[in-house]
Amino acid sequence: MTTTSPAREAPEGAAADGGRDGGARGAVDGVVRRVRDVWARTPLLARLVGITTVLLAMGLGIAGTATTTLLSRFLVEQFDERLVAANETYKEHVGEVYGATGSLDALKGTYAWGAFDYALRAEIDGDAVEMTPGPSTTSKYGEPRLPDLDTATLTRARTVTMTSDVRGSAWRGIVTPIVSKGSTGERTVIGYLLYAEPLGDVQGTVRQAAILLWTSAAAIVVIGAVVGTWAVRRSLRGLREIEGTAAQIAAGDLSQRVPAAPETTEVGRLGAALNSMLAQIETAFDARTRSEERMRRFVADASHELRTPLAAIRGYGELYRMGALTEKDQVDDTMRRIEQSATRMGGLVEDLLALARLDADRPGRAEPVDLAVLATDAAHDLRAIDPTREVRVGPLADAPAGAPGAVGDLPATVVRGDEARLRQVVANLVGNVARHTPAGTPAEIGVGRVGDRVVIEVRDHGPGIAPEHAARVFERFYRVDPSRTREGDGTGGGAGLGMAIVAAIVAAHHGDVAISQTPGGGATVRVALPSGAPADTPEGDGACPDDARDHPTG
What we know:
Layout (H helix, E strand, L loop, with lengths): L5 H36 L2 H58 L4 H5 L8 E6 L2 E5 L3 H7 L16 E6 L6 E12 L5 E12 L1 H36 L1 H14 L15 H22 L2 H32 L6 H32 L7 E4 H15 L5 E5 L18 E4 L1 H18 L6 E8 L2 E8 L6 H4 L27 H11 L3 E6 L5 E8 L15 H5 L4
Parallel strand pairs: 7-9
Antiparallel strand pairs: 1-2, 1-5, 3-4, 4-5, 6-8, 9-10, 10-12, 11-12
């Protein structure tokens, strides 16, 4: 027969206990971590106000509880003193009646039973009599439930609290022993006297005091929370100003500084430290020469983008030199590929030179340019590239609903700038629509005025662009699809310079460009430029050549 060793069982039990203890500790640690996480995410304002409010509520709660308790104890002590005085009076009278008659029945004729607001019970040598309160008392406080007492255990007077048949109403009484002296002077307890009165008045007073105290405490807590919130918010106003300044600095305005505050305060010392740091940062940025940055970026970008087509041309040339191309079709295909690579290189060089000229801040021609004309010409170009595509040109607010190709009555759309560069902006935007949306997809070009700026929007209804790409689409050499390159005749995908050129030209004209989602799907590129003609001039009235405003694009 196989037996289990107790020595072997003990470690298993200990391991189980250890596992349970470890699980409990893990659960506690998890709760603590969650509490810490919530506390860490709580704003400082909420922390300070919350702590202050909780401490105020706890203090008022303790004070209210102590006050209510002391008041109740004081009133009960006064009540007990009255009970003792009344009990002594009735005890003396009961003793006289019993001593004279030997019975307690005589008491029934002495008192008008049922006419009092108290209860009385007397017992001597087994002879007992009870006096109940009157109807006016019992209807309000109920009839007390008098306890049965054992005279053998009653050696001294004591108080007793009793319930009644009315919920929440209590009676309080005092029980005193009735003692008889023997011939030898020995004292023997032969009975007792119980005298009780309702505690309703005491309870009502304590209840009203408690309601008053707790109501006042709640009001004080609410007022304290409101005042505390105001005070803490006012104290943290300096931090909010620092936060606002930091947001402006993050947006690119390094000239911003934190408002000065007394350095005797924490906020003042923090602001002084931040201002010192910001001054050093701005100095460092100003010290960086623009020419070095432009040259570095130009060389790095150009070498990276030109490496692939140059390698392709060299490879095809080596194949031809080695005699690997024996068939005429192979030679023709190789020449076609070399031409494609050369075309791509030419486009890259032209784009890079355009960016270099823009980076050099060379002033271009400043002449009135009507964006409505550029929009109409771009619509014609897009219609020529894809005859199946419906292109609409119209006022900025209702371009999608306008007649195809009709400009209509537009507000002031004249800007001052280099017409060739601005045409390149619109051409690049329209070219993106042609390349990156399916054939036949409708497009709209809206022109209008927003405040003191003239705006042109190019909208498509293609697949659109994800938000993470929209934030970087104007960076140089950034492609939404890194695998996309120029295809076929060199007009397919791009090297990621088209939108960068758009952004550079717009910036040179002191404007801004942004991309967003088109309602219903697609991408919308908005270019905003400073107005070049006041509203009361012919250009400002939206004047535009007749052929630009009246001719449909398709």
